[in-house]
Amino acid sequence: MLFLSSAGESFLQLIFVLIVFVGVLAVTYYVTKWIAGYQKTQGFNKNLEIIEAIKISSNKYVQIIRAGQDRYFLIAIGKDEVVPLGEISSDQLKEIEEGEASPITPVDFKSVLDKFSKKK
Q1: Cβ(67)–Cβ(48) under 8 Å?
Q2: Most buried by CB count within 10 Å: which residue of 24, 50, 51, 86?
Q3: Using CA atoms, how far apart are residues 20 and 48, in angstroms rounded to an integer?
Q4: How far is the CA of 114 from the CAs of 105, 109, 111, in angstroms?
């Protein structure tokens, strides 16, 4: 019968704890992916769609919602409330063309990093 020293026993305990930790991480990862897939199929809806949303303050938004084929509603969303502001016809909506430039231009990380590194 082989008896392990205190250091050998501690090393085996460390290996065991690391294996359990990696196992728990793997189970968590796959369960999260499964729940996300389940919620995606449950939340899929063809009749309601958020067309556009704009943030007014830290917890207030104004959204345009399409209900059905051609009914559009403007709503205000607060922390604990949703207030209907009115109905919009499809003629009043401005369509975003694919070729139209976005008002927000993407920021290149390298240019920002270069800008801050030049200040120092």
Answers
A1: yes
A2: 51
A3: 44
A4: 18, 9, 5
**Greater pLDDT, 42 or 96:** 42
Stated pTM of the model: 0.47
Strands in 71-77's sheet, in edge-to-edge order, are: 48-57, 60-67, 71-77, 82-88
Q: Which residue has the tokens 């958020």?
A: 50
In whole angstroms, give the CA distance from residue 94 to residue 72.
12
Side chain identity, residue 56: I
Confidence of residue 76 (pLDDT cuts 50, 70, 90): very high
Q: What is the pLDDT of residue 98?
A: 47
